[in-house]
Amino acid sequence: MRVRYSKYEPGFDDLSGADLMDMIQDFLMDSGFSDPYNRYQPDPSRAPTAEDLYDALLQALLEQDRIPEEWLREARFANRKEETRLYREIQKLIQRLQDEGFIRLPGNDPSETGQGFQGESQETRLELTNKSVDFLGLKSLRTLLGSLGKNAPGAHLTRHYASGVESSGETKPYEFGDQPNINIGETLKQVVMKGLDNLEERDLTIELSEYTAAMNTVVLLDCSHSMILYGEDRFTPAKRVALGLAHLIRTQYPGDQVRFGVFHDSAEEVPLGRLPTVQVGPYHTNTAEGLKLARKMLRKMSGEMKQIIMITDGKPSALTLPSGQIYKNAWGLDPVILAETLKEATLARKEGIPIHTFMLAREPELLAFVKKLTQITRGKAYLTTPGNIGRYVLMDFLNRKVSKN
To answer: Which CATH number fits domain 216-399: 3.40.50.410, 3.40.830.10, 3.40.190.10, 3.40.50.10540?
Structure first.
């Protein structure tokens, strides 16, 4: 028997796109907390660049000790990194992420230009696909639901009964349009009592079931400066919760809709594909503008059952004036800002929208504000921390019973 040994060629051929996503998920979810120079971008939903992705993969490979020493030595003394084996191999990994549908680099497709990555612009913006968002959402969901036990997610219950879905044990006479869930025992009683020839439509007895309805949700994330202050990253856990909710709704509640917004000096909607890369900035907290945005988003979503989930760690400290200027006051709870914020809460109440607030801090002023906000909208308030916020949010979403008054 003859055994032939071939020369070992170092490389990263064993790494799949999913492996690479695992390695760089912290980079994709970065909230700005790790930036020692506080180099805030003016756009809180800005996307990282192709160069950022290269650096993230390089760092991940170095941490896992996967780069051969000769590649590092070559890179150390090279005049241009684009000429090194290390650079070419990492660009192959970037291409693998594109080929497997995890990322897009618009305007930098070698098949379109006929060129490789050597000529790419460092400002090429990285776009995440639905596949990558689902990957990050599933990762977050598994972590967040790890302590919730084995019960499967339910649906959004109402106070009403109908002739479908899950049986409640109750019955009623048949009416036109009901699902034909005939209760055989009760119907046969009518046959015996009235005779087959005398039966009417209402003598058919159907089984009642719990009626479930679709829920429209807007998740508001506070991305003001305080979310990364005081030696604690509060924003990354908030984003993980939002991604977990998105994945849960898309997979378990196909009739539901969820959209996302961020508020800071102002507020804007963030598409799901840009949610992982949202960062905090040197902003104040314009809660009123966030609530106004959420109400506007919910008006565009069909259905009657609506809710706002707001994740914040600070009291309102900014307000958009009629002129469009931003009035700011970070000292204490400004009565003008407070009044306008509670006005938005009152408008939400009139539109039948509860506001459920998850507080990441325990300042007395914040607690008093959230208590008032909750009372106005008949929502719920949760005092939580970045470590357990996911459990509270998802437990509430899975178990909430909603009734119409």
So the answer is: 3.40.50.410
